[in-house]
């Protein structure tokens, strides 16, 4: 049997702060970055994964991934649910590293990068794109990769199995639909807070011309500015296009309520991350005060346990899972099952470096094998940095093109890894 013989970890950073791409009220000057991991094997196929950061601290994230190497070096290459479940449990269960969380923060994100690289490897060996590799697993196999500890008061393994079994009869038909039509998308590209009014309006009009029926704007810096920018965006796209807004954790509860009442005249579709991602009660209070505006969160939610509380309390109307924040595919399956149990649509967070590439697989798996629907569901699209990936995500006429190449779409071109390596790569050493 093939074994894992090496763990390469690279600090890769892209200087997006130069053009203010990705800028918002909480993160005004991000340099989109990836703590990038490759699981080398003694066979012909390797596994690729990453943890996404926005610059400083990416070296810390890379060091955390490297600290997990003893758990995978020499290990048999994972090929099935049993092996992928065992790897996740071992990584999460390292008692000394777990102390640094538990199951949150830099170490948990590192586990996610390694687990995702293992799923990439298994899907490549099966010659399947990850979404299909997952969707072809039996309900029993999918339940076996999930850690139900701390969740069984909200969803039991038997309930999860029943959800998956109920979706099983339509899997083949939904796969065909997905391959033919792609998956609905919305775009954040017009809405970065550092963009001028002219750039915002122009990109908003272009988004509609490109087939998007939903855009998103960053808010939370200055209320008068946000009112002006929302008025410009609404005029640019018309009444038939949804506009979501994203505060990136900027507000206290009272500020969030006050701000959204001022923006309500522009019919915002949702308010994203209105307050601390850990504040379940705060999200609930905001949701109760601003309805019918939806409350969305998830990109900074640290684990399945916090998602359980957000869902069970009714604090969110839209769940935004992230492919690189929690403990990888295994934990994201748990989150998808929770969302299905509580009937909350999943609209994943994307953008960044590689997040569009990764998260498309999770949303498509959800459509085929879990929720069985894409009603009220869209995947975020940000048109930055895709050219660095071997199998980049693509969007046409407002829909993600369904990936068909084997794996998790995480592999970055060697030339990009060389150029943007920090601090020694040419992009940084000559800047």
UniProtKB/TrEMBL annotation:
Any idea where the Mandelate racemase/muconate lactonizing enzyme C-terminal domain is? Answer: 197-293
**Pfam assignment, any one:** MR_MLE_C
What are the alphabetically sorted keywords of the record? Lyase, Magnesium, Metal-binding
Q: Which InterPro entries match?
A: Enolase-like_C_sf (IPR036849), Enolase-like_N (IPR029017), Enolase_C-like (IPR029065), L-fuconate_dehydratase (IPR034610), Mandel_Rmase/mucon_lact_enz_CS (IPR018110), Mandelate_racemase_C (IPR013342), Mandelate_racemase_N_dom (IPR013341), RHMD-like (IPR046945)
Mind telling me which SMART domains this protein's record contains?
MR_MLE (SM00922)
EC class, as a word, reads lyase
Query: Which terms does the record give in the GO molecular function aspect?
Result: L-fuconate dehydratase activity; magnesium ion binding
Q: Which cofactor does it need?
A: Mg(2+)
Q: What is its EC number?
A: 4.2.1.68
Q: Which BP terms in the Gene Ontology apply to this protein? A: amino acid catabolic process; carbohydrate catabolic process
Asked whether the keyword Magnesium is assigned, the reply is: yes
Task: List the catalysed reactions.
Answer: L-fuconate = 2-dehydro-3-deoxy-L-fuconate + H2O
Name of the protein: L-fuconate dehydratase
Q: What is the lineage of its organism?
A: Bacteria, Bacillati, Actinomycetota, Actinomycetes, Pseudonocardiales
